[in-house]
Design brief:
DNA polymerase, domain 1, single chain, three-stranded antiparallel beta sheet, globular, 362 residues, 16 helices, mainly alpha, hpI Integrase, Chain A
Length: 362
Amino acid sequence: MAVTEYQTKKGRRYLAVLWMDGRRIARQGGFLTKKEAREWESTEERKILSGLKTDTAYSVIAEQYLNDCLRYKKRNTYVYKRSVLRKLTTYLNDPHITMGDIDRQLVKSFLAHSAETVTSKAANKYRIEISALFSWAQKEQLYNGPNPAAGIEPFPVERTLRYIPPPADIAAVLSMAGGWQADLIQLLIHTAARVSEITSLTWDDIDLRTGIITLWTSKRRGGNREPRRQAMTETARAVLQKRFDDPNRHSEHVFYNPRTGGKLERHARELKNMFKDLCKAAQVRHFTAHSLRHYMASALQNQKYDLRSIQILLGHQNLKTTQIYLHELAVDQAVAGQVESISEQISNSIANKIANSPNLRQ
């Protein structure tokens, strides 16, 4: 057994590692005191000696994996991974099952069940998460068996077209919104940002004097946050000024949860159901916050806006990502016009043939 002290932004923490026969069996960090770390070690050792196979127990390793994700991944990523592993736990229905007991056939059976009860697309995502769990356990030397999810063929999925709402539908939804909802939608339109970039804005990111807004994206390798700066439109500036001058403003965040007063998390029900409810009230086809990003990208492309400028606005790290993004949204009007021209040539040829043939005229 070994306890190691390490430093975090929140203060001193302790890491406990359990060794048996020269092999690392389990590890757990984040303990506030050395005593807590040693108590955990003793508990884990008793479990092993009592024959519960803690070294490869799925429940134990899954819990350690999620704790690791909570430290190094975004909160939304952690919540999703936790939900997938909970679904697998429910399906396995065996609290003492080990990692080695979860073979390829069992994983395929779970995925087939998920495809039938949820969707094929969801089942494919579940496979990725299960594979990530086993890969992590192998890397951490907590499990040395095969990865049963690796190499399983994904289910065929019907790829849907990205939906771009028409301006009239966006206006109808905006007319149904009020207060912070209307402000949020306006900023989504006037920045073409991801919803998480808007909800994570703090007043430190807003410079009303110079009209500069700093957006932070976590869509980078390793989940690292990266800033990008934008000039505010007149509407965006007016919205932000109004929120800044609000006498009831009490949060460091530009948008806060009206129910809890804390940060407006992406998975909060106030935000999760917002567009669904507004679209229903406006009696328009349902679209999401991300659809507004699609709309702005498409509108700028139709106006022949510079591709590099669109890339910067969208916050894409790679220009190729922007090209693929715009390609999926684009409709080639020039081709349609060319097809019409060719069709007219065929029609004219038929008309000339009829005019020059007495038999056809009859």
